[in-house]
Amino acid sequence: MKAILCPCEDITLEEVADAIDEGYATIEDVKRYTGLATGSCQGRLCLGPCVELLVEKTGRGPDEIGTIRYRPPAEPVPLGLLAAGPKEADE
Amino acid sequence: MAAALWASGRRILSRSMRYHRARGLFCGTGECTHCFLRVDGVPNVRACQTSCRDGLWAEDQNAWPSVRHDMLASSDLVYRRYLDAHRAFIRPRFMKPVYDRVIRGMAGFGRIPKSPVVQRFDARIEETDVLVVGAGSAGLAASAAAVEAGARVLVVERERHMGGRRADSEAMVAPGLEELGVDVMTDARLVGFYEDAGPVVATRTALVRIRTARTVIATGARDAFAVFPGSDRAGVVLASAALRLINRDGVLPGRRPVIVGATDAGLQVVRSLIPHGVRPAAVYDPRIRVPARVARGLADLGVAVATAHKAERAVGRSGFRRIRMATPAGRVDAEGDVLILATGRAARSELAQQAGCRLAWRPGLAFTVAAGPDGSTNMNAVRAVGSVAGSEDWDQSARMGARAGRAVGKEAAS
């Protein structure tokens, strides 16, 4: 039975463990190789468990492993809303 | 909508991306992907963040023929471990374009609307001395203290109500911030700290740029996801969703709830359930020892703590039915009509990281902002208070918020 680590992208715990064993052993490597944390929730559910798995498998501390870079927008927003932003001339 | 659907008995609301696993209400705070529906033609709308109204039209998506009976879920059985996207569907090479076409046809989340969705948005700029992000225990205290010190204060809250986690858990009287002279924006989301534009807020109808010299981040913490087979399935919810169902929506999550996690969150859930005549016999926890405060609180309510119960898998077809746990004395099954996960918390530190704050891992709270007792961080103009900065209870959060609020209020007023 699958243990889902990243529910948005359906990445399993085993899949991430295999990726780490293949040498993708940093948080950004795991993200890029498996697609973890790239779904609609942007890592809100999976990052903590992923860091814990990396700690367990690599022996490094969580602060050394660190976390992914969070870029704006931090929340989903309609494109029309961003397009409504004030233009330079308005300021 | 998610509460109404839960009350109607419906647990499966969506199907997951790859394996079409059954999902339903999960976080209740608009942070996960489990309750996506197509609403009035717009795909990927979170049911837990959408109010019911007359004429609203909701459909399921990403399933055939329906989310309750989805033939595409066969992929969950075919790929027993997982589908290795780097190695599957690349050979023989001449077939690759065919594979790609089929996969692209099946991939994606929801269909785009058939007709244009016309919505006009406004844009404006607001100025303030102090921006407070989040109106939970810490943010409320910070706002009140900063305005008292003579600063103009704007507080931005992503929910429609104030009080944060505490207000989801118990009846609390939030201070009347408007009467104190604090500007309040609710149902408004800080979408980012942009390098050129600074903090930007999205309301349902407008994009608002905030001009501020100082920011207090009080975004709180969410419930942590517990990873074990079946923990993602419909009928399994985080404590946050259970608390909101009970205390905000007046919906009982279940008559026979199984609760995993002898934590403050687990205790809050039990406390909220008891007035409605639901008293679980025990709360399960994988640890050998649980915090004395929580064990005492549960004992006072007549609820035992079953320690050293490690979740192995949750099962059920159209909802949750049973969880299997490994204990030193062998396997134990607990049956129920809902599984509530309260195993830990995770600080909402994404925005703080964007604002340049240094993060530090804390057991039980994941990556928090490294902050002093007055919320000061490595960034001069940014403070972080409450559970996002490592506070473990509401009183501590309020104290931290008040100290930070006083400090930034004075800075701004001078």
Q: What is the structural class of chain A?
A: mainly alpha
Largest interface: A-B, 50 and 64 residues
What is the first-to-last residue Cα distance of chain B?
48 Å
Number of strands of chain A: 2
Extract low-pLDDT stretches of chain B: none
State mean pLDDT of chain A (0 to 100 scale): 92
Oligomer class: heterodimer
Q: What percent of residues of chain A are in strands?
A: 5-15%
Individual helix count of chain A = 5
What pattern of helices and strands is seen along the backbone of chain A? EEHHHHH
What overall geometry of chain B do the principal axes of the alpha carbons give?
globular
List the total number of helices of chain B.
Answer: 11
Largest sheet of chain B: 7 strands, mixed
Q: State the helical fraction of chain A.
A: 40-55%
Strands ordered across the widest β-sheet of chain A: 1-2
Please state the overall shape of chain A, judged from the principal axes of the Cα atoms: elongated
Describe the fold and architecture.
The complex is a heterodimer of chains A (91) and B (414). Chain A is mainly alpha-helical and 91 residues long. Chain A contains five helices and two strands; from the N terminus they run E-E-H-H-H-H-H. The longest helix of chain A is centred in the middle third of the chain and has 12 residues, at 47-58. Chain A is elongated and about 50 Å long. Chain B is an alpha/beta fold. Helix content of chain B is 23%, strand content 26%. In chain B, helix 4 (137-148) runs parallel beside helix 11 and helix 7 packs parallel to helix 8. The longest helix of chain B has 20 residues, at 394-413. Chain B starts with a helix and ends with a helix. In chain B, 50% of the residues are buried. The mean pLDDT of chain B is 95. Chains A and B meet through strand 2, helix 1, helix 3 and helix 5 of A and strand 6, strand 9, strand 11, helix 10 and strand 22 of B.
